[in-house]
Structures are given as structure tokens and as C-alpha cells.
Amino acid sequence: MAEVGERRRARGGGGAARRAERTAVRIEVAKYIERNIPNYEVLNEEALAIIEANAETVLEEIGVAFVDNPAALKRWKDAGADVEGERVRLPKGLARKLCKTAPSSYIQHARNPERSVEIGGGSMVLAPVYGPPFVRDAMGGRRYATMEDFEKFVKLAYMSKWMHHSGGTVCEPTDVAVNKRHLDMLLAHMTLSDKPFMGSVTEPSRAQDSVEMCQILFGKDFVAENTVMTSLININSPLTFDSTMMGALEIYAENNQATIISPFIVGGAMAPVSVAGTLTQVTAEILAGVAYSQLVRPGAPVIAGAFVTSIDMNSGAPTFGTPEAAHITYGVGQIVRRLGLPYRSAGSFCGSKLPDAQAGYETANSLNVGLLAGVNFMLHAAGWLEGGLVASLEKFVMDADQLGTLHHLARGIDVSENGQAMDAIREVGPGGHYLGCAHTQANFKDAFWRTDLLDYKPYETWAEEGERDTVTLAGARVEKLLRDYQAPPLDPVTREALVAYVANKKASEPDAFG
Q: Is 120 helix (H, G, I), strand (E, B) or coil?
């Protein structure tokens, strides 16, 4: 009897241990995606040749504008471009030649080396929403974003298994002065997460602040020799490169930090209504932007990007998840790969005001297009709402959950001996059941993607638990993730140095909200 009691206690202890393991706070982080599936290509060789030739014609005959930037105009003139006022016309082949020094891939280092990511080749790195001035949650509705909101999003990104990157301006903290909020945002990324992050681009001096804060976090020598930031440089489509964005690009390129050079395309407004015409303009803008980064510093890491949407011709509002946007995203992917560059596009795009069915359909379309298009860096991968005006806490966790499906899709099909499952087929035979067979028991934990959010319970259980819809479940998950959040360790001396840097910078000038 004593032996039986001991076995019972052992079993009870084992059950308790398993329950404790299930309820313990664990921060799981998946490695960035490495594709084992082919890219989807919509353009044949003839179409690609036509678009590339037209883009060269645009650069040679129409040109691009580098506004309020005499240094850029001088660089272009010295490189052999025809400069007339602020208009720069590039002889055929010049931009493509300059682009050849840009690396095809690079490593962005995180302060935790296990979180570093490779951007380019067959990889895909997922980063949060970027730039919304408003936030929305079930409790507070739609409101202007604050620094507290910003910190919540950074924590959620850190706690999200399928999110590889902390992002940049996950929302605009409007309660902090415009000329100082970049300091608080960077400090949040550096201290509340150990994933890679983005720098400030809203003014060249703020890009320099970003570099200097990274020198404190990583060490000056490390930053001089490695890429620790990837930052977003938008082109003012059509064909215009403003001094603010280019000034930030110059700071980052000079310091060997990566930039995303990305046309901002709203078809029918900032680009032609036709897909081929838009592809031509985007190609010309990418060629000019990437080439300029290499004029600043040959070999500077750069991502060729394309933010793509179309316009509703009745309301003038941008539309998302559309077939035309998909065609452009696929097409730009082919063109960028021919240039040998990493590619940024797609995201959790939607035009819906709420995290509802419209948001779900449009987001699913956009996310899957990004995977199949060969995107290497997907900004806005979670949290986007209302055409990018709003960052939603509930939608963030809904999107972050779905990012797991991209990881599983990208794996491709396992045709190893285990994947073939011939032993299982032999064991079960005609009319049998696979649930209890040895192969199922050995593989069931990892065989299928499993949601951390969606409800698959029987109707009776769902009803007893309050008939909660997905937004309600997402709200509960937001609360749980924030409750379970634990800051990653950071050397106290480094933390103090960062805090002191921010305090000194803030004290050096008055607040500006314009």
C-alpha cells in the first residue's frame, strides 16, 4: 500500500508540475521566417523588361526632385547626373550601377543577440504598426495616443511570439513635445524590449540622437561596425525626395545604419491608376533612392520598399486588401529581387474603423500577399486600423496571433521520413483511427498551428463563458500579456546613461508642439 501511495503522490506531483508549467509566464520568441516556399510571380520576362525600361526613361527624361538639399544635388552632379535647379535626371544605367554596392542582405543586431534578425534573401522579419496618431481599445474608444499607449504597444510586441522586431513609432505619443518624443520612444524600445528597433526620421538631428543613443546601448565601436537600426525613409511620391527624409537617410547611411527607401503609393492620387504605370513609377523611385544612399556611403545597408494602396474614387479614401494592391506588391517584389535588394511591403492593412469582419478580410489578404510576394521586412504587421490613422490594442493581438500562420505556411511541406507518415498509414490501416497511433502521439504538439486567441470550443462551453466574440477575447489577451509582462534585463549603468542622455537632451531646448 505504501508503494501505491508513493506512486499516487508521484502522479499527483507530476500533474501539479505540468499545471504549473502551463500557467507559468513564458516569453516565447520565434525566429524570423525562413521561406521554404516559392515566391508568387505575376510578371513574365517581357513585362519586367518593359517596366524596367520605362523606369529608366522616367529617370532620364522626367527626372526626380531633390528638394531643399544642395548637398544632394552636388552629389548627383558629381556622379554624372544632369542637374537643373532641383530636378535631377539620370542617364540610363547610372542608378542601376550605383545600386550594385548595396548589400543583398544584412544582420540587424538586437541588444539580446538571440533576437538579432537577418533581412534579405529568403527571410521575412515582422514588425508592428508604424505612425498612427490615434489609438483605440474597447475601454477608451478612439483617442489621441499617449506615451503610456506607446509603452503598452512596445510591451505587447515584446510579448508576441511571432513578432521579431519592436518597430519604431508604433503610435505618436501626442502628450510629449514633437521635438522630444523621439527620445522617449527610443528609450522605451531600448529598455522595455530586447528586440531590434527603428530610429527616428522626422528631422536629421533626431536621426543623430538615435545613433548616439545606440552608441550608449551597444557601444560606439560596435555601432561603427554593425547595423543596429533599420529606419523608414518615405519618398514623397510622385518622384520627390524631401530634405527631411533625405537628411535622416544621410545620417544613417554615413553611420552604416539601414534605411527602408519606400515610395508612398496611393494609386490614382500619387501614382497612375494602372498597375503597370504604378510599377514603373515605383521602380524609378526605388532606383533613385537606393542609388542616392550609395552615393552617401557605398555599401550602406538599404531595403527597397513600397507602401501600396489604391483610392476609392467615390470618397477619396484609401482602400486596402485589394487585388490591384496585390498585383503591385507581387510585381515590385520581382523587380526588387532582380536588383538584388531586400524588400519591404505589405502589412496588416485595412480601412475599417473597428477590428471587425472588414478588418479581418482586408488584413488576411494583405498579410498573405506579403508572404507570397517575397517580402523580407513587413512593417505594420500588427495593430493597423482605419487606414493607418489608428493603432488598436485588440487588433494588435489579433494580428500577432495570425502571424503564426505565416510562419507555418512558409515552412513548406515536410517530406522527410517522419513527414511521409508511412508507418502511421501501415499501423492504422483501412477503417482505423489516427488519434491514438504512435505517429500522432509523437507529433501532435507541433503538427498544427495553434491559436492563442481564437475560440474553437463547443457551443455550450462558449455560451457558458459569456458568448465572447473575438474582440472581447482580444481585450482579455491584451490585459493578460500586459499583466504578465516582465522587462528584459539591462545593465543598470547602461540604463542610467540612456536616461541621463534623454534628460540632458530634453533640457537643452524648449518644448515644441508644432
A: strand
